[in-house]
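FORM 7B: Structural annotation worksheet

SECTION A. Query
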Amino acid sequence: MTARAEYLVVFVTARNRDEAEAIGAALVEERLAACVNVLTACRSIYRWKGKLVRDDEVLMVVKTERKRFATLERRVRELHSYEVPEVIAFPLTDLSPSYADFLREALGVDSP
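SECTION B. Predicted structure
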């Protein structure tokens, strides 16, 4: 394992699979993400405008580079149907060298 804190995993929820796939495809096509996993059947419980809400949603797991996060977040907001989409990131502190190579290649990043 090698430290790669320059990469992130970003969670984004979407209204449905079609929306998640459209957003995911745009992020990958624009090289803002190396890969987007679309996980269906997510149940979200949250407070919105003073009310307790329960929604079925779809979770996207997005792999990207830290320096692309601001642009990725802006692009998600442009494409998303929610007023306030969830876009939260976690640093990838350890990952296999071969997966780091995949991320670099998919994102069009020069090798270290």
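SECTION C. Observations
Residues 2-107 form a domain with the Alpha-Beta Plaits fold (CATH 3.30.70.120). The mean pLDDT is 93.

SECTION D. Sign-off
Analyst initials: ____
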